[in-house]
Amino acid sequence: MANEHAARSLFADALSGRINRRDLMRRSAALGLSAPLVAALAQASTRAALAQSQEGTLSVTYYE
Predict the structure, then answer these.
(1) Counting Cβ atoms within 10 Å, is residue 56 exposed (0-12), middle (13-18) or buried (19+)?
(2) Residue 60 lies in a domain
(3) In whole angstroms, what is the distance from residue 20 CA to residue 49 CA?
(4) How far is 56 from 26, CA to CA, in rounded Å?
(5) Residue 64 lies inside a defined structural domain of this protein
(6) Which residues have a Cβ under 8 Å from the Cβ of 61 and sit 6 or more positions away?
């Protein structure tokens, strides 16, 4: 039961971009998650962090 809560918390943190790759690897290893799942979560956390860093930035477009 506690393991399930920790896994849900890990998934939520990874998919929202609130966790870095090092912490993701540590928490995943502690939970005993499989390597393909950890790789997918790491990729998702990187994408989420990039999306957050670009959110709110304006891009200027000029039309002729």
Answers:
(1) exposed
(2) no
(3) 9
(4) 31
(5) no
(6) none
Domain of 21 in residue numbering reads as 2-54
16, part of any domain = yes
Tally of domains within the chain: 1
Instruction: Report how far apart, in Å, the C-alpha atoms of 46 and of each of 1, 12, 35, 51 are.
Output: 28, 13, 16, 9
| Residue carrying the six token digits 């998934």 | 11
Global pTM exceeds 0.90: no
State how far the Cα of 36 lies from the Cα of 60, in Å rounded to an integer: 39
**Residue type at position 33:** L
Q: What is the pLDDT of residues 12-31, one digit of tens each?
A: 887 777 777 788 888 888 88
Identify residue 12 by its one-letter amino acid code: A
